[in-house]
Amino acid sequence: MQKKKRILLKIGSNTLTKETDNISRGKIEDIANQIAKLKDTCEFIIVSSGAIAVAKQFVKLESLQSEVFVKQALASIGQPHLIRIYQEIFREYGLLSSQCLLSYSDFEKEESKTNITNTINVLVNNNYIPIINENDTVATDEIKFGDNDKLAALTASLLEVDLLIIATNTNGIYTKESIKQKQPKTIEEVTNFDDLLSEVVSSKSSHGSGGMQSKIEAAEVAKKANIETWIVNGLEDHFITNAFKNKVPFTKIK
Model's pTM, two decimal places? Predict the structure, then answer.
């Protein structure tokens, strides 16, 4: 039997909400549809943001605590809803899914890293798609520092995936000059990181806490583990299958 290509797909809040204030069931259907089409040749592990965005659809928390604690509480409310939406939609496409909550500290302990690897391998080998998020109720790294991009890269490295796909709200990384000219031009392939860093414009996305800088840093972590990273426009329909067929502009970091 031919070995399946192992893909870690990172989906940020902006992609999941299609840049609105609500989680888009249509976007999750689009993702499920593509995974179902590719399941004979690819196995997927998903790192998904969106717990806080889901919670904001249901509740408005009042608190005198700092904003980080409110966001942690929102993550606690939103995470079960987020997983339920994934499970309901994935089931319609014949896909099984599971929830894994990780913290950055898990990647600092050998025992934890072994446990993560073994657990996810069992899930994937039994045709379950692990849906990973940061355990925001005990950790604040994603809330403070980056929209799960780093978590995705560390997980990709640990699991020795073949490809890291980061879904974002642009057609990959644009050249700095083209952004100035207001005619964004995608950098299609990157082999030199220093050249890439000189092109990055610092900006954050509306729902996400990352921005392009955190995606570059994630790609750098992946590159050290010899993993190729694709930065693809997740707002477009069929963004994974179209990238495989080179039908859309996106950035490959080799």
Answer: 0.93
